[in-house]
Design a protein that fits this description.
The structure is a homodimer of 340-residue chains.
Chain A: H1 10-17, H2 21-29, H3 36-49, H4 55-62, E1 67-72, H5 81-93, E2 97-102, H6 107-119, E3 124-128, H7 134-142, E4 147-150, E5 161-163, H8 166-179, E6 185-190, H9 196-211, E7 220-224, H10 228-240, E8 247-250, H11 253-265, E9 275-277, H12 283-287, E10 294-296, H13 299-314, E11 323-324, E12 328-330
Parallel strand pairs in A: 1-2, 1-3, 3-4, 4-5, 5-11, 6-7, 6-8, 8-9
Antiparallel strand pairs in A: 10-12
Helix pairs in contact in A: 1-2, 1-3, 5-13, 8-9, 10-11
The first copy, chain A, binds a DNA duplex (30 and 30 nucleotides) through residues 9-11, 19-23, 25-26, 29, 33-35, 38, 53-63.
Chain lengths: 340, 340
DNA sequence: TGCCCTAGCGTAAGCGCTTACATCAGATTC
DNA sequence: GAATCTGATGTAAGCGCTTACGCTAGGGCA
């Protein structure tokens, strides 16, 4: 086709510089193996032609793309944003490009996205949480694509992970709630099916309650999607029940903010009439009034360390080790003593 | 290498099914061109071997990847999240995969990401705003990768775009502020350099002020990065000046929320002592107390329509048309009459 | 001076896929 | 029954790149 305006290839550069394609390739990938005079000539041609390598071809020939993929449940709220930003920054420092995909919390979409990313040559993958079809991990293993689980950590699972103990974190927060005298507690949980983080958090509350000699069956539990509106709706429903709780513990900050909003609409004072807690400590938690009591997660640290570990795995410097991060409580205004 | 556990290829499937690679390829890409009996046999082998196509190879041979790239300035706040989610959903419906990259508001990083995505075979690109090195658009044109500008719209620019008029939207909001009697106005703008949206919004305010016979020079303008903390800091600085404004107009909701926070810390009542406005109408705007007066942008609609248009461009059904969306004011509690 | 090394490049064989073109066995037509 | 057509499948030529291997020339060494 019209030579004039078609995309320049390695061959074009080679021809322009009067060398072989091998030399051009070496200039790009292992400059020290080419003598400076030729290298300069080649680089000039590269610039003049506006050449950029075709990754598809490169990946096929070299089996390396310097691309890392991440599949997160959602971009819509800030839960993953901060950690992901740190993840990307660290990857960038190490010469890797991050490609992100979101699954809308749907396992089938997640699987599709994983395949898409792998098929596009991702060298490694960041996945959120443990819960997914084992076939996927088998698939990744066959293809020798290392994957790192993030936002979760479990001693019982050998897959490499970086995160915190969702169970213990929520257990601790629930203890605090109980310490303040709350006995009638409701929970607005994320959808637990297929989401180990939501599951563990819920279990944490249940255990703490049980350990305080309260019948866990008395917990009013509602599962809800992670949206402010859903949180609000769940809160409304809970507060219509005959036996109103004095504290509502939410699976994350987004749900808690929804609850807070609805409380205001209903004319309920927080925490005088009802206490509300969250999880994640996203920016939102400090901004709302009253500020949210929640569990702080070191998102940026997690993102950064995930990048370091994943790159090591890709470069075979690590077989994949797991790292547990510490979460901590942030006791703010939305949690108070149980009304007498 | 050890045949047993290596990645299956088209050839492996062909061998297993006893057909040629061409037939397997056709089964995958144009099923109707293969008779059902063979097709079933092939698909069985595909399943048994756990075959997934290699996109690099496919892209190289077919020059199509069904992948769309988007480069957004940041994932950290929700400005782009909602629109992007809708964008992805619509793309998914049409059989395309979305890959996202973030530039941290840095032009050099953005350029790098654009090249990365193109090199990885993106069929089309979604870019935010007009402002960027013309060389980039030339590069995309040479490579025949269609690009759609989003979150901005200008009659003066012929590049295909979908968005709203940042200038007019902010002009309208400023008029409202002026109508309420505010004469001493401050602006916390985003960084205008390299950001046409921030620039247009600022100009909108300046024009409205001028049209009200106020010296635009009297505007106290601070440029700030789009972070809550920066917004808070800028607000603090503004409120220390000798001639305190009665209204502070912010370049977006994130900055406005920062301002709101600092106002509370400083013991200033909003809007009694000072009015504050935002832009974008992200979720946050409704959640803070007092709720934020802002400009509503139809994010989801924009995302969806962007997907439709971009796919059409990729499939050559459209040369790239521009669409202007309407923004609208959301007058909430944070804006009140100027104190007398 | 003759030999071996080595640095610097070129040659060419793939990587896994798509697709134009060739082939071939019916089915259709007169 | 021969000629023609048609639909299903195979053959093989790339797509743009990397890299094992081979070649050459100059330098070092005995």
């Amino acid at each position: 086709m019209d030579k004039g305006r078609s995309i320049p290839t390695l061959g074009d550069v080679a021809a322009a510089a009067g060398v072989s394609t091998a030399t051009v390739s070496r200039c790009l990938n292992a400059p020290h193996r080419v003598v400076k005079s030729t290298r300069d000539r080649v680089m000039n041609s590269v610039r003049e032609l506006g050449y950029t390598p075709n990754f598809g071809a490169r990946a096929m020939a070299a089996k390396r793309t310097y691309t890392i993929g991440a599949i997160i449940p959602t971009m819509e709220n800030a839960i993953f944003a901060r950690g992901l930003q740190a993840f990307q920054e660290e990857l960038h420092l190490r010469g890797y490009t991050l490609l992100v995909s979101s699954s809308a919390y749907r396992p089938d979409v997640e699987e599709e996205q994983i395949r898409a990313l792998v098929a596009r040559g991702a060298d490694g993958l960041l996945l959120i949480g443990y819960d997914r079809d084992p076939a996927i991990h088998a698939y990744l293993e066959l293809r020798e694509v290392p994957a790192l689980v993030a936002w979760a950590f479990s001693n019982d699972d050998k897959r490499p992970a970086i995160g915190f103990d969702n169970y213990a974190s929520m257990y601790g927060l629930a203890q605090e709630v109980l310490r303040l005298g709350h006995r009638r507690i409701a929970v607005i949980s994320g959808i637990t099916k297929g989401n180990d983080r939501a599951t563990q958090r819920l279990k944490g509350i249940q255990s703490a309650v049980r350990d305080s000699q309260i019948d866990p069956e008395s917990l009013h539990i509602i599962e809800s999607t992670y949206e402010i509106e859903s949180g609000a709706a769940a809160f409304g429903q809970i507060m219509q029940s005959a036996r109103r709780p004095t504290a509502v513990m939410c699976g994350n900050d987004v749900l808690a903010v929804g609850a807070l909003q609805r409380a205001r609409v209903m004319g309920l004072r927080v925490p005088e009439d009802v206490s509300i807690t969250g999880f994640d400590d996203i920016e939102l938690a400090r901004i709302v009034t009253p500020a949210l009591t929640t569990v702080h997660v070191p998102h940026r640290e997690m993102g950064r360390k995930a990048a370091v570990e994943l790159v090591n795995m890709v470069e075979k410097k690590s077989g994949g080790t797991s790292t547990q991060l510490q979460s901590s409580q942030r006791l703010r205004e939305s949690l108070g003593p149980a009304p007498t």
